[in-house]
Amino acid sequence: MNIETQIKNRVGHLYFEAYNGAMDLAHLERLLEAYQGLANSAEVRLILLWGGEEFFSNGIDLLSIDQRYNPTLLAYRNLKGINRFIEALLTNDKQLLMAGLRGPAAAGGVMLALAADLRYAAPSVVLNPHYVNMGLSGSEYFSLLLPQLVGLGRAQALLLEAAPLSAEQAVRLGLLHETIAPAIFKEELTIRAEFLANHQFEARLATKNLLLGPLRQQMPELVKAELLAMKSLCDQPGFAQARADFINKKPSPSFAQVARRNLR
Q1: Backbone Cα Rg of the chain
Q2: Shortest CA distance to 56 belongs to which of 23, 90, 93?
Q3: What is the pTM of this model?
Q4: pLDDT tens digits along 48-99
Q5: Side-chain half-sphere of 28: how many Cα atoms within 13 Å?
Q6: What is the helix, strand, coil percentage profile of the chain, to 5?
Q7: Residues 249-262: pLDDT tens digits?
Q8: In the chain, what are the domains?
Q9: CA–CA separation, 243 vs 171, rounded Å?
Q10: How distant, in Å, are the alpha carbons of 20, 61, 119, 190 from that of 198?
Q11: Which of 154, 58, 179 is nearest to 109 (CA)?
């Protein structure tokens, strides 16, 4: 995994390029360390999460998990690893956070983006903010972020029907704030980030913390419940079968196929 940081004009840029967008525990520990380096810098007022160019992030690395002696235990440890990173994002009360999605995101990678205060994507980006196709309920503060951003009803549909979302659909729902053309994507986000970091920053930061205060109070209990459910499901045959299908590139049956079978 390639991780790069840069500080310019009070903006900390964090690039993290992983193969297929998937991160194992060692990757996550390095990513958290790089993020903390920016978060602890007195020079940085806004952190811009770029992810990778081909993929923003697809959460934990299922292939590396499946190759180990105890996939269930390693999956759980990886989930706790990505939780620690997203917790660090959500509890950051010193800086603004922005996510720039140049490529698709799935599962924990979507939650990583949603933990940012402002979220922008290229028009071609596709989001899969769900876990059930892998035989899992969800982690990474999904039960806090999704209902808060789109409402309980839409969160239920997103998570249970488990259909992919285009960037345009995600903007309409409020998961993303805007799509920006690829030709100007990096330049435009950098300009916006530098403006936010240098104009009325204190007022923007105070506003952010007032908005997130009630959510932060709920985090410990919600993540405990999420991990308890995930620990149980990691032991179920559905997760093992979904991992095998994913590794062998066998398509999972989708709700959309069933729902539309008589509409053609």
Answers
A1: 18
A2: 23
A3: 0.93
A4: 999 999 999 998 877 666 665 566 777 778 889 999 999 999 999 999 999 9
A5: 26
A6: 55, 15, 30
A7: 777 667 766 766 55
A8: 2-201 (3.90.226.10)
A9: 30
A10: 35, 37, 19, 12
A11: 58
